[in-house]
Specification:
The chain is mainly alpha-helical. α2 (31-57) packs antiparallel against α4 and α4 crosses α7. It is built from eleven helices and five strands; from the N terminus they run ααααββββαααααβαα. Strands 1-2-4-3-5 form a five-stranded mixed β-sheet, with helices on both faces. A hairpin with a 6-residue loop joins β3 and β4.
């Protein structure tokens, strides 16, 4: 039972880790490390929770998960009583729901982007002032990217062109291109699908909010490699003051009307504080351990 118990312990530990990480602020100093840690926690929770249920279900075979599954198939679960059969059904159900909701999230995003691209083809225009960018004739402030496998599109509104000066606009465009280049939309998908599976659990919503903020900070960091940080910080403040609406479904916007995350981003742009080397090293070491250890325990005899 050692393997199943360890997997259950890891499952609980990842939940506790997610709770702590959702309140952490050191990740703001190193957002890419924070994103990797979030991904490891999500993967570790799914694999360990399913593994703990499978380990409990396969206890009668006394061979662990990997070596116990052939025995389960061979005797058609004849050794399983009600408790172990329930655990097996729970593991299969959880795995099926997680995969199905992830695929559904991918389908919804792809469909939304396809529709939005078709709409952009009808209502957007090119502008020599912002080459390679689509312009919408709308007075409100808006700037976002529509990620894609073959090509991504960066979109700004006419209101944004009036709101920002040339330098601020260049910084915003660099931020959006960072989203497209680093495919931050793929980072968000598993967390968005997890919220669909557990919509009533507040921790899941906080996890998604934390990851969304970190990918914005990561895009900010990449943008300031090309433009001075003050340009992007000023642009974010102008956007926040203009109270922009949410970005269209399936897209990634530069800013929302939520003042707290915007000010957190502005403060770190204007007064950057590097993460402590020891913290970054510990997090970098934790990522592969959290992500891979549950899979290794699948082969451990229970």
């Amino acid at each position: 039972m050692t393997g199943a118990a360890l997997l259950a312990l890891i499952s609980l530990a990842t939940v506790g880790g997610a709770h702590a990480l959702s309140k952490a602020r050191w990740t703001w100093r190193s957002p890419r490390t924070g994103i990797a840690l979030w991904q490891a926690l999500g993967l570790g929770w799914g694999v360990s929770t399913i593994g703990a249920l499978l380990g409990l279900a396969l206890l009668p075979y006394q061979r662990g998960i990997v070596h116990g599954l052939p025995g389960l198939v061979a005797d058609q679960a004849a050794r399983l009583d009600t408790v172990h059969l329930t655990a097996l059904l729970a593991a299969a159900s959880l795995a099926a729901v997680l995969v199905a909701m992830l695929m559904w999230a991918v389908f919804r995003v792809v469909r939304a982007r396809r529709r939005h691209r078709a709409l952009l083809a009808l209502v957007s225009r090119r502008d020599s002032a912002v080459p390679g960018t689509l312009v919408l004739d709308h007075p409100g402030a808006a700037a976002y990217c529509v990620p894609g496998v073959r090509s991504s599109k960066v979109v700004v509104s006419a209101g944004t062109l009036e709101l920002l000066d040339a330098d601020e606009l260049a910084a915003v465009l660099a931020h959006e291109r960072a989203h497209a280049r680093e495919r931050h939309d793929l980072v968000l998908l598993p967390f968005a699908s997890l919220r669909q599976v557990f919509p009533q659990i507040g921790l899941v919503g906080r996890c998604l909010d934390a990851v969304e903020l970190l990918i914005e900070m990561a895009a900010d960091d990449r943008a300031r490699r090309q433009r001075p940080a003050r340009e992007l910080a000023t642009a974010l403040l102008r956007f926040a003051a203009a109270r922009p609406g949410p970005a269209p479904s399936g897209t990634l916007g530069v800013a929302t009307a939520d003042d707290i995350p915007v000010m957190a981003r502005v403060n770190r742009l204007l007064e950057p504080v590097p993460a402590r080397r020891g913290v970054r090293l510990a997090a970098a070491l934790a990522v592969p351990v959290i992500a891979l250890l549950p899979a290794v325990l699948y082969a451990l005899p229970h």
